[in-house]
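Section 3.1: Structural characterization of target chains.
Under the original work plan, the team committed to producing a structural model for every single-chain target entering the pipeline before any wet-lab resources were allocated. The record below documents one such target. The sequence was received from the expression subgroup and is listed exactly as submitted; it comprises 215 residues.
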Amino acid sequence: MIKGAIFDLDGTIIDSMGLWMEEGNKLLKEYNVPDYEEICRTWVPKSMYETCVYVSEKFGLNKDELVRIWESKMEYHYLNTVTLKGNILNTFNYLKSKDVILMVATATKRELTDKVLERLGIKDYFTHIYTTQMVNKSKDYPDVYLACSKSANLGVNECFVFEDAYHGIRTAKNAGFNVIGVYEPTMNPYVDIVKKYSDYVIKDYDEVKELPIFN
């Protein structure tokens, strides 16, 4: 029986991956990084921080400066322009009606996460919120998902992870979680991985209530 739902933030709860990609392209272009578009396509789906680590090590740039500028750009969007993924409120309410505990597991810093959830009026839906910084591990490791399930006193088999990032989907599945891949255009190069490791892949949140696992 499913008792918990763990949601990624960017690209899963909020429609922000295009903005992360746009701001990343602008920033790396300003720093004259070669093949910046390909770098962003490859690395941004993992995380902004990992993108900055890669670029700083390969091209000798200041990682902390890149992170600071990129985060400041995204903070503006979080506070002003970012919207929810379509029909996700219906899904939150549906899962709540089934007594499913809702949680967040994200690579975005806690301060920014709280700000955007509060602005959009949805923070109170979530019982537990964990970031990769809080567990000191990226989503190449299951720690952030496990922190959620353990905090809710649930086993991994009692939880579904909603995720758009291919590496997060793979990590969660390998850790024993049930996984719903949430379609996001940035996953297109990795669609085979997404399909391989997801129990279900949805393009719209209205599909959730039709899934047999929640009925």
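The radius of gyration is 17 Å.
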